[in-house]
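Q: What does the assembled structure look like for these inputs?
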Amino acid sequence: EIVLTQSPATLSLSPGERATLSCRVSQNINNYLTWYQQKPGQAPRLLIHAASNRATGIPARFSGSGSGTDFTLTISSLEPEDFAVYYCQQRSTWPITFGQGTRLEIK
Amino acid sequence: EAQLVESGGDLVQPGGSLRLSCAASGFTFSSHWMSWVRQAPGRGLEWVASISDSANEKNYVDSVKGRFTISRDNAKNSMHLQMDSLRVEDTAVYFCARDPPRYSDYWGQGTLVTVSP
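A:
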């Protein structure tokens, strides 16, 4: 099973600041890395697929990068609605696995 | 726009069974893989199972193999998850999701399954 480790577990920032979230993978998954955002009581929302492709309707302040085993989600300038939990997911091989999540909270 | 609506969640005793359904609309259901993902209270996301567009390929997380069965009815634009021998640790909100290759782009709002004596 491929293990995804997200860091930090919690990130405390202020609106307008830049957020950098990391997802490290236990083996090479090429670029089969997806990022989701989840707010309390809601379903996950697709942000980025194939490591760097923004999903339809996702603002340009969200960007993804990386390949192989190290991936990053960057939010260039935080808006109030960006404070949520973020998950990475690999779909390179079965079973599909998620990281444990990074909670982005308002400082 | 694509829409997914789950149903069937309930309170059930350990060892019991439950059948979840996912009704799809707004897209060509028969052209897409579909998945179930669950989230235990206060916990992260866990993939449960996926089924190919033609239902000829099915994959499961180890913890549900032999207990859960994923299926679909392309004529009725629906997917199902038959859950047998339920355990307390199966308690979660269960989401269905549409899968273009390699990611999930549309999700339902989830249905709550509670397994408790």
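The mean pLDDT of chain A is 97.
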